[in-house]
Predict the structure.
Amino acid sequence: MTTPMTPATPSAPADLLYSEAEEELRTAVRSLLEARGTPAGILARIETDRPHDPALWRTLAAGIGAAGLLVPEKLGGQGASHREAAVVLEELGRAVVPTPYLTSAVLATEILLGCDTEDAVPLLRELASGRQVCVPAVPLTLAPGAPLPAAVRDSGGGTLTGTVTSVADAVAADVLLVLADTGLYAVPAASAGITPQVPLDLTRPLATVTLDAAAGTRLADPATARAAVAGALLSGAGLLASEQLGIAEWCLTETVGYLKVRHQFNRPVGSFQALKHRLARLWLDVASARAAARAAADALATQSPDAPLTVAVAQAYCSGVAVRAAEECVQLHGGIGMTWEHPAHLYLKRAKADSLALGTAGHHRGLVADFAELPAP
Amino acid sequence: MTATTAEQLLTRVRGLLAAHPPATTPRTDFLRARFDAGLAWVHYPEGLGGLGAPRSLQAVVDAELEAAGAPDNDPRRIGIGLGMAAPTILAYGTEEQKRRFLRPLWLGEEVWCQLFSEPGAGSDLAALGTRAVLEEESGEWVVDGQKVWTSSAHTARWAILIARTDPAQPKHRGITYFLCDMHDPGVEVRPLRQITGEAEFNEVFLTGVRIPDAHRLGAVGEGWAVARTTLMNERVSIGGMRIPREGGMIAPVAAAWRERPALRTHALHQRLLELWVEAEVARLTGERLRQQLAVGQPGPEGSGMKLTFARLNQEISALEVELLAEEGLSYEEWTLRRPELVDFTGRDAGYRYLRAKGNSIEGGTSEVLLNIVAERVLGLPSEPRDDKDLAWKDLAR
Ligand SMILES: Cc1cc2nc3c(=O)[nH]c(=O)nc-3n(C[C@H](O)[C@H](O)[C@H](O)COP(=O)(O)OP(=O)(O)OC[C@H]3O[C@@H](n4cnc5c(N)ncnc54)[C@H](O)[C@@H]3O)c2cc1C
C-alpha cells in the first residue's frame, strides 16, 4: 500500500507583495482608466455593436505597453511576467472596462508562445505591439484540465469548418486562433462568420464563430497546439483571479464609501453594526483573495511546479469572493443598486460571468482534489 | 558588528551549533547559549536575545536550527509570555525590567499569564474594576480584585496585570499596567472547568497583593495604551504564525480522508475541498502578512487572521466529527485535568471541536474584532456611545 502524501509546501515561499515597478504600472493603468474608462462611458458603449473602445485599447496596449507584458523583448514585447499582467488585470477588473486584454494579451499570447514556432512570431509581434487583436476561438467557459473541444475540422489544406459558441471578444478581433483536428490555425476574423450573442456580461461581449471552409495559416501540429492551449488556459485561469480581486476591491471600496455618507434613521447607515460586520467580513475575504491571486501570479511567473495547484486554489477561492462582493454592493446600495445608471450591475454581471469563465469554482475544487490527493468517494 | 544579513546569521547559527552540539548539550544549556548568541528573536536588541536584525530573518535561523535537530523552547507552553508579555515589556519596560524578565521568559523557565479579563469586564475590558492603591510609605501597590478565564495561571510564575488606579477618571484613563508575581501570598488560583472537561483556565483572586513600584510597566494611568500593545500582539501572534501547507486543523481531517476511504461521502467531499482551499488561502494570507511585517508595512490583516483562524478551526473540526461517523460520537475523557498547554493536533476530534469554540472568544471575540476591522480598517463610523467621558465610578454596572 502506498502511504498517502501531504501535498508539499513549495520550498521557496512565493513573493506575495507588489514590487515598486508593479505599483508604477498600476498607477499608469489606473490613471488611464480613470480618465477614459468611466462608468458613464462604459454604459453608453455597451449597448452598441462596438462595446470596445479602440482608442483606449491602443493607449493601454501600445502606449503603456500592457499588451506585450508576457512577450519576451526579442519578440517585440516587454519581457515582463505574469506578476505585471496580474496587476493590469486587477485594474481592468476594478474598472470593468471592455478590453480584449484577457483574451488577446493573455490567452492568445500564451498560446502563440506555447507554439514555439517561427510561424507564430509575426503574429506575436503584432499582438505584443497592440497593432492587432487576436483571440482564441474557444468558449469562454473552457477550463484548464477539461477535455479540449473538437468542433472545428480541417477539410483539407487548412480550410476549416465548424462552429464555436461563446467566444469572448471575437467582435473586436482581427485574427482568431482556431484549434482544429490538424493543428492550430490563425484565421483572419474577416473570413469567419461572427454573430454577436446577447451576453449576461455586456462588458465582455460574446459571439458565435462560424467557419465555413475558411482558410487559415497553420501555426502548430495537433500535439503542440493542444499543449499550448492547455498551458494558456492555466495562465488565463490564474490571472483571472486578479481580475476578480479587482472587481471585489472596487465593490468593497465603493460600498464602504457610500455607507459613510448615506444617512437613514438620523445616522450614517455605515454606523449600524449589522452592516459593519458584513463589510468587515467582506474585507477579510478580499484580503485573502489578494494573497491567493498573488500566489497564482507568482507561481506562473516563476514557472513553479506548484502553479497548477496554486491556480486551482486561487480560482476556487476568488470567483466566489468577487460574486459575493458584487452582490453585497448591490444590496447595500439599496434601490440605487438596482438601477441601470449605477455601475454596480456592471460588476455583478462581470463577477458572475467570471465565475463561469475558465472553469467554475467547483471545477477547480475538483482539480484541487486531484493535486492534493483528496479523492472523491 | 550586528549580524543583519541571512549569510551572517547562518554563520552565527553554525558557530552556535559547533560550540554546543545539540546531541550532547543539555536542552536548557543549548537554549541559554542560543539566547546569548542573539539568535532567540533576531529582531530584539543585542543583549536581549537578539541582534537588531530584520524580523523576517528569524525564519532563516529557525529553519537551520530545526534541520540540525536543536531543541526548541516550546512556544505553545509559553505562548502568552512570548507573544504578549515580551513585546510589551520590550516596548514599555525599563532597562532593568527587560534584563530581568526577557531571558527566563524566552527560555521557558518562567511561564507568564495574562490577568486582564474580569467577571464584569470582558469585551469591554477598559471597564475593569480590580483596584491598585499606592501605599506611600512602602512604595508598593496594593491590589484587590478578581480576574477570570486566566489561561495557564496554574503554571505561571508571572502575570501581566491591569488594574484601576484612578476611579475618578474616565475608564480608559485610570488604568495602570503591572507585572505581578504569581507566588505572592495574596494570589489565589482556582481551576475553572471548561466545555472540554478540563481546566485550562482559572479564576484568580487577588487579595492585598503587594506589587513593588519597580514592577509597574509604563506610566501611572497610562495602562490602557500599554494593554493595547499587548492585545495587538496577541492577534498578530496568532495571524503571523507560519504553518506548512495542510498544517493546522485541516491536517487530521485530510489524513483521515486519505486513510479511510470507507468514511467518504460526496457531500463531505465538497465541504472538505472548500475548507482545504480556505485553509490554503489562509496560509497564504498569513504568509503575506509576515512579508508585509518584514518590510515594515504592518497591515491591519492581523485582526483579520485571527477571525479567519477562529472560523476555519470551528468549521473544520465540526466536519471532522461528522466524517468520523460512529467514532465521532465518543469523547476521549471527561476527567478534570489541568493541562500545561493547548494541544490541538495531539487530541481527538471531539476535543478539537469543543476547544475550537474558544477561538472566537479568547483574545477578543469575533464580534469585537469585526468592529475593529470595520472602524479602524474601513473607517466606518462608530456607533453612538456615552461611556467615553464619564468617570469610571459613575458608569452603569
Ligand atoms: C479559552 C479562553 C481563554 C482565555 N484566556 C484568557 C486569559 O488568559 N487572560 C484573560 O485576561 N482573558 C482570557 N480569556 C477571556 C477573553 O478575553 C474574554 O472571554 C473575551 O474578551 C470576551 O469577554 P466576555 O467573556 O466577558 O464576553 P462578553 O464581553 O460578555 O460578550 C458576550 C457576547 O457579547 C458580544 N459582544 C460584546 N460586546 C459587543 C459589541 N460591542 N458588539 C457586538 N457584540 C458584542 C460578544 O462578542 C459575545 O458574543 C479567555 C477566554 C477563553 C474563552
